[in-house]
Amino acid sequence: MPVIVTETYNVPVEKVWRAITDKDEMKIWYFDIPNFILKEGAVFDFFEPGDNRKYLHRCQILGFEANRFLKHTWTHPDHSKGSSELLWELQEAENGTILTLTHTGLDSFSDAGADFAKENYRVGWNEILGKSLKNFLENNGDQV
């Protein structure tokens, strides 16, 4: 079963798209991803926030359509042989934008231990989308 998180933001779809695809904006609310390039096939890497640099994330962009969707892999090569996929889908709504994030393949990280349990991803994505991104988009980043 995938982890699916849906949030509605009171901003235009273009603003949400920019937040999830512009590395300068992502650095504010999400992760610092210096080598992020919005190009099919591009690979990008990042670590969790802070100086520990314990969990390397390696991702590859599988496809995108501006203001509609972004799909990429999500792996932890230092901890697991598994590979998962993230699909970010944007939909215009009456008062803004609906973002649905679907994270599939999390069971493939079972070789990595408890830190990579599906429930941790569920909690993390709810926090990231429901608080960090929402504050960034709706409060101009004042409370990120």
Description:
With 144 residues, this protein is α+β, with helices and mostly antiparallel strands. It has one domain: START domain (Alpha-D-Glucose-1,6-Bisphosphate, Chain A, domain 4, 2-Layer Sandwich), CATH 3.30.530.20. 26% of the residues lie in helices and 31% in strands. It contains three helices and six strands, in the order βααβββββα. Strands 1-6-5-4-3-2 form a six-stranded antiparallel beta sheet, covered by helices on one side. Helix 1 (13-21) packs across helix 2. The longest helix has 21 residues, at 118-138. The radius of gyration is 15 Å and the shape is globular. The termini are far apart. The mean pLDDT is 93.
Can you give keywords for this protein?
26% helix; 6 strands; 144 residues; alpha+beta; Alpha-D-Glucose-1,6-Bisphosphate, Chain A, domain 4; 3 helices; single chain
